[in-house]
TrEMBL record:
Belongs to the peptidase S10 family. It is an enzyme of class 3 (hydrolase). GO terms for biological process: proteolysis. The keyword Transit peptide does not apply. This is Carboxypeptidase. The keyword Membrane does not apply. It comes from Capsicum annuum. Pfam families: Peptidase_S10. It is found in: Secreted.
Length: 450
């Protein structure tokens, strides 16, 4: 829908009752540039919901400005969480006035659409505002997830001549550690068989705190918790035996039971450690992601986004989670191996995440089958600073970059908005620590001359 036509919208919304308690003109710039539905099946009308935010301060003509696509994890969680709680240009926050709680939107100047276009897709169908006409149509594996995403992305690109040739980066977090490789792999395989004008201009993929190779990742919780000082040696052994159960079930192809066994590892860790959330070891209470649901269930907000008012928005869909239950422990590592040979790959993790953190990712990265892996593993983690402050570490060789984001949990763009923005911009533009060597050497010799 076209937001130029919309000039007013209810902006404050009461949590305590469903009545709207304050109406203010909604700043036009808080609305997405475009939002609505991308049909993935014309016979059933199932469709993927999207919001697109054009670059605020593009450094190139829009037709040459990259587009980042964001996919949330779960499985079953809405990319509107990423949009309104992490990396989008306006984020929800709660405030108090007149003895009532409100959800308000606050501008996020550290959003990922400062110099790039930013597209959020509610994936797969059944998630967030996306529509699954029947539960049977919800994908149960990554191949089917990728098929729908591919149709949606192609539709989006065709929607506007301005989108046609722009470089596309697929990004995502957590369970999108499965979706991102799956759609990236699908696009590259399709591209190989298509004429240039029909290819999707995929240039790179990004995974944050991702679940990608669950068998090697689930094996790391016990040691990680032990070295964080959360459990003692005896408890570590208990966690380890639970992990081994998850691993052996998965190795036997008993996927559903393996998923349950992994949940038991995490639940046991949470009980033993008393952590209010495993997403960030430093948080004293869980992330307030319910604010996103409060905001998006407002009728006026739904109207403004082009959503049927009768849809109830849930941050995470249990139905979709269930559909992908058997998929959860299956690996897509081989897809990342294919991607790193053919495009750029960025992996980043918030250091304080107890669910899918650094050692969890390194466990599969070091076992990657890729000709550059030894050189990558031999590279140092270089000290990464943003505005002169320590932000983390960057390890890079060739097409693979790995970033440690300090003082951050699972939701990196929420916890470290500025640093996450600096990371994505430098990586896309190959600047700073993400520069390729010959460019680095050129600038070094130039600065020596000057
Ligand atoms: C669309 O839905 C029909 C009916 O369920 C199904 O046969 C077909 O495979 C679906 N197409 C895609 C692309 O999912
Ligand atoms: C999977 O594991 C469960 C519980 O351990 C067991 O009851 C079931 O028979 C297993 N299924 C298969 C196919 O191995
Ligand atoms: C919204 O959805 C309901 C229930 O599916 C349907 O009856 C109604 O026609 C829809 N409204 C619009 C404006 O599409
Ligand atoms: C890195 O990706 C490029 C394509 O962008 C490819 O030509 C090259 O072979 C890849 N390098 C390695 C070492 O896989
Ligand atoms: C650039 O410098 C790095 C060390 O900083 C070196 O490893 C690399 O070989 C140099 N590359 C070129 C093209 O001179």
């Amino acid at each position: 829908m076209d937001f130029k036509l919309l000039s007013f919208l209810i902006f404050h919304y009461s949590i305590t009752s469903s009545s709207i308690i304050a109406s203010l003109p909604l700043p036009k710039q808080s609305l997405p540039t475009k939002s609505g539905y991308l049909s993935v099946n014309s016979t059933t009308n199932s469709a993927i919901f999207y919001t697109f935010y054009e670059a605020r301060n593009p450094t190139a003509p829009l037709s040459q400005t990259p587009i980042l696509i964001w996919l949330q994890g779960g499985p079953g969680c809405s990319s509107m969480l990423g949009n309104f709680y992490e990396l989008g240009p306006w984020r929800v926050s709660s405030s108090h006035s007149h003895n009532a709680k409100h959800v308000t939107l606050t501008r996020n100047r550290e959003s990922w659409n400062r110099i790039f276009g930013l597209l959020f897709l509610d994936n797969p169908i059944g998630v967030g505002f996306s529509i699954a006409s029947t539960p049977e149509e919800i994908p149960r594996n990554q191949k089917d997830v990728a098929k729908h995403l591919y149709i949606a992305i192609k539709k989006f690109i065709k929607m506007n001549a301005l989108f046609k040739n722009r470089a596309i980066y697929i990004t995502g977090e957590s369970y999108a550690g499965k979706y991102v490789p799956a759609i990236g792999y699908h696009v590259l395989k399709k591209n190989a068989r298509l004429p240039v004008r029909s290819k999707v201009n995929l240039v790179g993929v990004v995974i944050g705190n991702g679940l990608t190779d669950p068998i090697s990742q689930v094996a790391t919780h016990a040691a990680n918790a032990y070295y964080f000082g959360l459990v003692n040696d005896k408890q570590k052994r208990r966690l380890k035996s639970l992990q081994e159960k998850a691993i052996s079930l998965a190795k036997n192809g008993n996927w559903s039971e393996a998923t349950n066994a992994r949940s038991e590892v995490l639940n046991t860790l949470q009980k033993m450690s008393g952590m209010p959330t495993l997403y960030n070891i430093r948080r004293h209470k869980p992330y307030q992601n319910y604010l996103v649901a409060e905001f998006l269930n407002d009728v006026e907000v739904k109207r403004a986004l082009g959503v049927n008012e009768t849809i109830v928005f849930e941050v995470c869909s249990k139905v979709v989670r269930k559909a992908l239950h058997e998929d959860l422990m299956k690996s897509v590592k081989y897809m990342v191996e294919f991607l790193v040979k053919n495009t750029k790959v960025l992996l980043y993790e918030g250091q304080l995440d107890l669910r899918v953190g650094l050692v969890s990712t390194e466990a599969w990265v070091k076992r990657m089958k890729w000709e550059g892996i030894d050189k990558f593993l031999e590279a140092d983690r270089k000290i990464w600073t943003v505005n002169g402050e320590l932000a983390g570490y960057v390890q890079k060789w060739g097409n693979l970059s790995h970033v440690v984001v300090l003082n951050s949990g699972h939701l990196v763009p929420h916890d470290q908005p500025l640093n996450s923005q600096a990371m994505i911009e430098d990586w896309v533009l190959e600047k700073g620590l993400f520069a390729n060597h010959h460019i680095e050497n050129l600038s070094t010799s130039l600065s020596n001359v000057l």
